[in-house]
Design the sequence.
């Protein structure tokens, strides 16, 4: 299943995410995903595993154009020249000569002038053909407005925290209004059960309403949530390093949720963010230096 971006480029709707995947596990996970049928891999400079993603792609035996490669610029590399160089670093680690999608990882509103300059560098990379599409991540409607007021190319994608407990309807509406595709990180609510993120959080994977729908279709709760994303026109990038889970997450194209089931999942929204607030500056984290190699 493919989605068409606002510049005409097509992107596989379902991709493998590698956030918090240890470098040693990442290569095998990417290779397993591509063997399963995935053709879209999402990584980021800040994840520290771009090199291993590239190794997994090469180990798959697939030709470069067969795999949609998405990565992100980290805040410490914002600024026009710095972001042009971030492309050099990313492509060098990945072992590729172009990127399919290159996005800004955070709006970083405490230094938004650098965010704008970084995006203008993405526009240059896009114009030069070094990237096929550009976008953003974790941008709220007011960040999008500021960006669009100062730049020329509308982002193709906005990657945001999005799962049944946090649907960000206002952001989805803003994206749709500008022709921006919404892409879900933590699409099956993984962030609601990662250790250390707050033990009081409710695990969306154990929600009884989702479990009931899963039983009807003889599918897992994760598969139901991924199908929910796909039927509502979103891209989703579930993360796993377990080959069986990777395969399970891809097995979502042989069933369909009814309108009432989609509505029941929509109704689970709590309005509570589980990941970092994009409007809160995280100076120490933002200062993390991305190595050259």
Sequence:
């Amino acid at each position: 299943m493919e989605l068409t971006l606002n510049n005409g480029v097509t992107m596989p709707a379902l991709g493998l995410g590698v956030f918090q995947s240890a470098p040693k596990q990442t290569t095998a996970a990417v290779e397993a995903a591509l063997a399963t049928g995935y053709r879209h891999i999402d990584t980021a400079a800040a994840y520290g595993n771009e090199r291993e993603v590239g190794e997994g792609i090469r180990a798959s035996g697939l030709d470069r154009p067969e795999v949609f490669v998405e990565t992100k610029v980290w805040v410490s590399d914002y600024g026009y020249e710095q972001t042009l160089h971030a492309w050099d670093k990313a492509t060098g680690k990945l072992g590729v000569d172009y990127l399919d999608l290159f996005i800004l990882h955070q709006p970083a509103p405490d230094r938004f002038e650098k965010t704008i300059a970084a995006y203008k560098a993405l526009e240059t990379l896009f114009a030069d053909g070094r990237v096929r599409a550009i976008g953003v991540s974790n941008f709220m409607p007011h960040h999008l407005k500021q960006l669009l007021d100062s730049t020329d190319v509308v982002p193709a994608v906005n990657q945001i925290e999005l799962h049944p407990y946090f649907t960000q309807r206002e952001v989805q509406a803003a994206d749709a209004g500008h022709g921006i595709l919404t892409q879900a990180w933590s699409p099956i609510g993984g962030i609601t059960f990662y250790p250390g993120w707050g033990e009081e959080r409710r695990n969306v994977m154990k929600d009884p309403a989702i479990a009931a729908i899963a039983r009807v279709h003889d599918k897992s709760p994760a598969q139901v949530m991924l199908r929910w994303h796909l039927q509502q026109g979103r891209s989703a990038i579930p993360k796993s390093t377990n080959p069986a889970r990777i395969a399970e997450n891809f097995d979502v194209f042989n069933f369909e949720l009814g309108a009432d089931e989609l509505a029941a999942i929509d109704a689970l929204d709590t309005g509570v963010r589980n990941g970092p607030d994009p409007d809160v500056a995280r100076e120490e984290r933002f200062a993390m230096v991305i190595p050259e190699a």
